[in-house]
């Protein structure tokens, strides 16, 4: 846990933003894989972690704003728990660690909420994303579980996002640790890559690196020669000469902060000329984003800037044509770049998106652009110092999408389909860094940037 003063201060800041009522913050429960005592690795709710820091199943927190109390509800371990898990801290100790003013048994939560309802007090909560918490909250609040999200508090969502989107020095330090673990994960993948090895061998080893440092992977590893499939979690392919391997992976710390990095490289250690040409365009887009991202810029405008770099590079190769600004405005580039530039990152690899992607990435000033590709941009609003975000442009050759657009004669004034068809089977390239918005610009997080230039890649791939 961080120092208790940090949690106390966070709750005080939230209290000032809401001014009255009760905030209910349930933690998560154990989740069984196939029978009750065989559980998935426990992952605490991130908002509960942010305000209380206690990484334990079966607990909940209350911020009573009117009475100025922060209450932690949970049960001490009994002898049966100790037999299986060993001695544990008492709830009183957890309360001290988090700076909570009171600690109560978990059964007291229903009594507290019931009393508040009887008095007509306002109870605010976030939209639950786990079915067991929907059931618990529905019972506590007297709301049918299928409707529980409908009554979640938009005011609370916005207040918490305004706090969590600005990372403090403790958070940045922990994220940097995750970046350094990711560096080892990705350089290991590069060194292991060679024809004849299975994707699963590489993905298994790099997941083990995350575990080695006391955390876990921050999301299921993407490690695939089918890079045109954006989120490909299948690891069954055998690497062969001529393949590009895309590895999108990150680590989560013991405090549950994340990293999220992507690299793409040739499994033989040498790019073909065609691969080198496309790779350099993506790298140019990535570096343009790093150079352009600063406070006051909207990430939507930075996304479109990256799209223009990609479209311009593809035009130079003869794959696109016409006026580049017009092509991007029309959305023609999205056949090659059909996703957003990046997202918030922090306690969650897609930070805070459990509360609603539009609340996290957009606001009253910046709305989502309703256009294929650009509509998938998760973060569009103005950047502020303290934002931690991903920068992940890419170029992909998706046979089904190319065929559909060609058959529909879509954007034929901007896309040279005969030339594009020469790239069927190419796959895809994505390059992703995690960046911190500073007072004057941004910086790439981590002690060292994961190898990314063509020379760096060719010097490390296959060199165990």
Model description:
- The structure is a single chain.
- The protein folds into 2 domains: 4-164, Creatinase/prolidase N-terminal domain (Creatine Amidinohydrolase, Chain A, domain 1), CATH 3.40.350.10; 169-460, Alpha-Beta Complex (Creatine Amidinohydrolase), CATH 3.90.230.10.
- A hairpin with a 4-residue loop joins strand 16 (433-437) and strand 17.
- It has helices spanning 4-18, 46-51, 79-85, 91-98, 108-118, 131-141, 154-164, 169-192, 199-212, 273-292, 299-316, 324-330, 357-361, 399-407, 417-420, 454-460; strands at residues 22-26, 32-35, 38-39, 60-64, 69-73, 102-104, 123-125, 216-217, 222-224, 244-249, 251-252, 261-266, 388-391, 394-396, 428-430, 433-437, 442-444.
- It has 464 residues and is an alpha+beta fold.
- The protein has 16 helices and 17 strands.
- The chain is globular, with a radius of gyration of 24 Å.
- The model has no long low-confidence stretch (mean pLDDT 96).
How do the strands and helices of this protein lay out in sequence?
Layout: H1 4-18, E1 22-26, E2 32-35, E3 38-39, H2 46-51, E4 60-64, E5 69-73, H3 79-85, H4 91-98, E6 102-104, H5 108-118, E7 123-125, H6 131-141, H7 154-164, H8 169-192, H9 199-212, E8 216-217, E9 222-224, E10 244-249, E11 251-252, E12 261-266, H10 273-292, H11 299-316, H12 324-330, H13 357-361, E13 388-391, E14 394-396, H14 399-407, H15 417-420, E15 428-430, E16 433-437, E17 442-444, H16 454-460
Parallel strand pairs: 1-7, 5-6
Antiparallel strand pairs: 1-4, 2-3, 4-5, 8-11, 9-10, 10-12, 13-16, 14-15, 16-17
């Amino acid at each position: 846990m961080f120092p208790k003063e940090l949690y106390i201060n966070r709750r005080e800041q939230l209290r000032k933003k809401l001014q009255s009522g009760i905030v209910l913050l349930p933690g998560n429960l154990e989740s069984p894989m196939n029978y009750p005592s065989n559980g998935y690795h426990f992952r605490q709710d991130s908002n509960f972690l942010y305000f209380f820091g206690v990484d334990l199943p079966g607990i909940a927190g209350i911020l009573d704003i009117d009475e100025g109390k922060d209450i932690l509800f949970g049960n001490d371990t009994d002898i049966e728990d100790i037999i299986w898990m060993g001695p544990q801290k008492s709830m009183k100790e957890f309360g001290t660690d988090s700076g909570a003013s009171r600690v109560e048994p978990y059964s007291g939560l229903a009594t507290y909420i019931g009393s508040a309802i009887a008095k007509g007090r306002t109870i605010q909560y976030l939209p639950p994303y786990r079915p067991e918490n929907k059931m618990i909250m529905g019972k506590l609040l007297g709301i049918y579980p299928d409707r529980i999200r409908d009554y979640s508090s938009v005011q609370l969502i916005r207040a918490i996002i305004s706090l969590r989107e600005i990372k403090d020095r403790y958070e940045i330090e922990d994220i940097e640790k995750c970046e350094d673990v990711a560096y080892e994960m990705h350089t290991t993948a590069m060194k292991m890559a060679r024809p004849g090895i299975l994707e699963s061998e590489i993905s298994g080893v790099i997941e083990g690196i995350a575990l080695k440092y006391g955390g876990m992977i921050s999301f299921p590893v993407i490690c695939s020669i089918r890079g045109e499939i954006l989120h490909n979690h299948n690891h069954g392919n055998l690497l062969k000469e001529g393949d590009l391997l895309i590895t999108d992976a990150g680590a989560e710390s013991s405090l549950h902060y994340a990293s999220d990095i992507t690299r793409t490289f040739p499994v033989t250690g040498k790019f073909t000329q065609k691969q080198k040409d496309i790779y350099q365009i993506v790298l140019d887009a990535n570096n343009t984003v790093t150079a352009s991202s600063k406070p006051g810029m909207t990430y939507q405008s930075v996304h479109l800037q990256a799209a223009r770099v990609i479209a311009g590079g593809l035009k130079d190769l003869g794959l696109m044509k016409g006026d580049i600004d017009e092509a991007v405005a029309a959305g023609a580039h999205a056949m090659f770049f059909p996703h957003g530039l990046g997202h918030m990152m922090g306690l969650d690899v897609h930070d805070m998106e459990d509360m609603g992607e539009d609340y996290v990435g957009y606001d009253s000033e910046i709305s989502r652009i309703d256009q294929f590709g650009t509509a998938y941009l998760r973060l569009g609003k103005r950047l502020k110092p303290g934002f931690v975000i991903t920068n992940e442009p890419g170029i992909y050759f998706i046979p089904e999408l190319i065929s559909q657009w060609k058959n529909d004669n879509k954007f034929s004034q901007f896309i040279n389909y005969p030339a594009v068809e020469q790239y069927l089977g190419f796959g895809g390239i994505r390059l992703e860094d995690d960046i911190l918005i500073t007072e004057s610009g941004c910086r790439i997080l981590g002690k060292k940037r994961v190898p990314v230039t063509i020379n760096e890649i060719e010097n490390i791939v296959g060199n165990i």
